[in-house]
Amino acid sequence: MTLWARSLVLLAAGAIQTPSAYKGLEITVKSLERAVNVSLQDCPPGDNIVRGVIRPSEENEFATVSIEVKVLPSFAPVPLPKPVLYDEANKPYKTAQSFGELNASPSYSCAFSFRVPKGAKLSRFAIGDASFDVVSFDK
């Protein structure tokens, strides 16, 4: 099977998401993972080395959404809102992380972590009015 055909199969299965443009940025959700210990670096990653830890007695976990950000020629540096993660009941979960200056490099890989109830069914990741379906990533 050719690389193109494999990519088409993964896209049809929801394992690859097509990029969406938002304020001069091309954003693609790459994964959704759950953990009890995560990095809380901002995007793009910088000097912030804060970590988030869930205590064993808590009924929560972190859901981490990894994204790829490509800076398009139309991008003008503006403050970006913090991302929000929503469950299937449309309940929002906020992150402590934020976007920093996105003009020094043409692309970035970032991960945003959200404290959610264990096993919560997650539906979408949003940055301002841009929304990304994460159901296919939530296994």
Structure in words:
By secondary structure, the protein is mainly beta. The protein has a single domain, classed as Immunoglobulin-like. It is 7% helix and 43% strand. It has 1 helix and 10 strands, in the order αββββββββββ. The strands form 3 sheets. A 4-stranded antiparallel sheet has the order 1-2-5-8, with no helix packed on it. The longest helix has 10 residues, at 3-12. The protein is globular, with a radius of gyration of 15 Å. 19% of the residues are buried. The model is unreliable at 1-14 (pLDDT under 50).
Q: Quick one: CATH class?
A: Mainly Beta
Portion of residues within helices: under 10%
CATH architect. name:
Sandwich
Strand-residue fraction? 35-45%
Distance between the termini: 26 Å
Low-confidence stretches: 1-14
Question: Mean pLDDT, nearest integer?
Answer: 85
The CATH topology turns out to be Immunoglobulin-like
Count the strands?
Answer: 10
Domain count: the total is 1
The H/E string reads: HEEEEEEEEEE
Helix count equals 1
Compute the gyration radius: what is it? 15 Å
Anisotropy-based shape: globular
Strands of the largest sheet, in order across it?
Answer: 1-2-5-8
How can the largest sheet be summarized?
Answer: 4 strands, antiparallel
Structural class comes to mainly beta
